[in-house]
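Continuing the batch. This is chain 6 of the set; chains 1 through 5 are on the previous pages. Same settings as before, nothing changed between runs. Recording input and output for traceability.
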Amino acid sequence: MRSLDEVIISCAVTGAIHTPTMSPHLPITPAEIADDAIAAAEAGASIIHIHVRDPDTGEPVGDLSLFREVAGRISDACDAIVQPTTGGALTQSFEDRIRVVPELSPEMASCNMGSINFGLYQLVDRYDEFEYDWERPYLERTRGHIFPNTFEDLEGVLESFAEHGTRPELECYDVGHLYNAKSLYDRGLIEAPVHIQFVLGIHGGIGADPETLTIMHRVAEKLFGDAFSFSVIGAGRMQFPLGTQAATMGGNVRVGLEDNLYLGPGELAESNADLVKKGVRLVQEQTGRTPATPDQVREFLDLKGKDATDI
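Output for chain 6:
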């Protein structure tokens, strides 16, 4: 496994999972998303993972003009690596989700390594009423929805990544996704250095607990040897325990309101920066590792550099 002395802190600012009813602190407009991202970068995040939302309703969308506005605001204000999603929103087709790569030609973007059931419907019972009409059906539809990432899809999007010099971060929600990634790596569609995001705790994927992180890590080491590095998402309350565990293993950490709305039990995080600050503190206390700078991450992951993007 590849590792830095420092730790890469990624921040997923708004995502497409949580809805406005769930937290008044979820950033919605381009200005809110960018401002929260910039503050997260100042707090120690070197990678900013972005989705966009309808500025009026907060519904996750794939509007490229919104992606351009958010990415531009962040890039103008700080040196963080802007990492747009190709996972998009549940209402988007695969073709719509991946348009952001040729649009922005980013240094890095997320790239999902397989299809899964992606359940959000279980969240509906936690709320008596929703602020917007779209929220309940958006969540409930996931009972019968598959998040599609076929082999044909993956081949196509990876060709686009290669064409634009964009490094894929491989989002692996289960052990089988690691084997998908290895198959694509063996065919030359993914090149070293390989950076994997273990996504733990999505309803439909592998669970979020210490044992499953260990399993994912062992399988990745078996498949990729010293060609890979990793980061971890612990959905919900497991964000900080699994992030700290990953850091002790030489891995890296993702925090942010996309994955977890709470700073502690019953305490909503008021900003992404608050989550980054807590993550940095825990990692430093438990491992002595300090946050990597964006330029350290660029060198480690062999990114093409900010000036080579179309942001």
